[in-house]
Amino acid sequence: MKALEDKIDKEGLVFPGNVLKVGSFLNHQLDVDFLMEMGEEIGRLFENDGVTKIVTIEASGIAIAVATAAKMHVPVVFAKKTKTSNLNGESYTANVHSFTHNKDYDIVISKQFINKEDKVLLVDDFLAVGNALNGLIDIVGQAGAKLAGAAIAIEKGFQGGGDALRTKGIKVESLAIIDSMEDGKIIYRH
Ligand code: 5GP
What we know:
The chain has 6 helices and 10 strands. By secondary structure, the protein is of the alpha/beta class. It has one domain: Rossmann fold (3-Layer(aba) Sandwich). The strands form 2 sheets. Strands 5-6-4-3-7-8-9-10 form an 8-stranded mixed sheet, sandwiched between helices. A two-stranded antiparallel ribbon has the order 1-2. α3 (32-45) packs across α4. Guanosine-5'-monophosphate binds next to β2, β7 and α5.
């Protein structure tokens, strides 16, 4: 999505450790008009996939998930992050390792909100090595739901998570894929 690449070029900041900050429109301040454009594009990409539910992870996935839902007219469920899993049998949980924050956390979704009748579209702001998405895919499997695929705003292609999922046959659509960002220079895959 050319408009997203332009916005990253204009407003994105590259930090040590291959971290891209887009706090001006996606991760801190939210550019809602632009989020709606991204949501429309994701909605188009998955319009024929029978999606019944959008699933994301709090907090930074929620905005783009909501924008996508405004186009697709299905509910959004966000996995909650916890330090310790409270296994009471009423929730699905998975463990996720975050390289950006160098810590593990559990993600939790109540069994109430995802079930085997669902066809789930995963939506997130960033895809790097894929741990966050793999945690969500694990939960979709626990629920016996079907996976429509994953839609991401910004994929850091050089970290391999997206391609690993595509190799497994999962439909992964990213609105911008960054192939490198060495010395602050961002190069996109087309
Ligand atoms: P993964 O699990 O694929 O390695 O990383 C995905 C998660 O880590 C995303 O949900 C996102 O919150 C965070 N993340 C990974 N890389 C970046 C980055 O370069 N910038 C920002 N803002 N978040 C990132």
